[in-house]
Amino acid sequence: MNLLPLYRCRFTYERSWNVPASGQDAKETQHFLLADGRCEGRIAGALVGANHPRQRSDGTFEVNFQGVIETDDGEVIYFDHRGYGRAYPIGRRQIVGAVTHLCNGEAYQWLNDTIAVSTGEVRTDGDATELVIDVAELVWAPLSPRGHLGPR
């Protein structure tokens, strides 16, 4: 398999809410966050979305983020991002995930059957927090004729 960069998105959460769990799971919290930002790269445009992650008792967020990218050339691309917002390291928490896209516009229809992967950071500086995420297309490649991935 190969990775082909698609875009880097930068966004902030403009509004947010959370509800702590009660009962046995009292250390977990359900969040609802409204995002506003921008994507640059092969896909460029304004990003708006809503993330509604569950924060586990170990501090990890289970990313559940949907929204749209309004491209600079006038198309609308829906995205669905799932993964983890790790609780470490403090000040630059790690994000890893998988992303699917959906678009009716001819220029981006190729996205409709792709899988993308993401890696990023939650960058905190004082009271300011910005999320920066790189998204890359996972490109199919033939399997090794030996039937394994190689040495471990």
Brief characterization of the structure:
The chain has strands at about 1-20, 30-40, 45-50, 55, 60-70, 75-85, 90-100, 115-125, 130-140. By secondary structure, it is mainly beta.
> H/E series, N to C?
EEEEEEEEE
Kindly state the percentage of residues in helix.
under 10%
In the CATH hierarchy, the architecture is: Beta Barrel
Question: Hey, roughly how much beta strand do the residues contain?
Answer: over 45%
| Uncertain stretches of 5 or more adjacent residues | none
On the 0 to 100 scale, the average pLDDT is 93
Tally the beta strands.
9
Would you write up a description of this structure?
- It is a single chain.
- With 152 residues, the protein is mainly beta.
- The chain has one domain (2-19, 30-139): Porin.
- It is 0% helix and 63% strand.
- It has no helices and nine strands.
- Strands 1, 2, 3, 4, 5, 6, 7, 8 and 9 form a nine-stranded antiparallel β-sheet that branches.
- A hairpin with a 3-residue loop joins strand 2 (29-41) and strand 3.
List keywords for this structure.
Porin, 63% strand, mainly beta, 152 residues
What is the topological layout?
Elements: E1 2-20, E2 29-41, E3 45-51, E4 54-55, E5 61-71, E6 76-85, E7 92-102, E8 115-125, E9 128-139
Antiparallel strand pairs: 1-2, 1-9, 2-3, 2-4, 3-5, 4-5, 5-6, 6-7, 7-8, 8-9
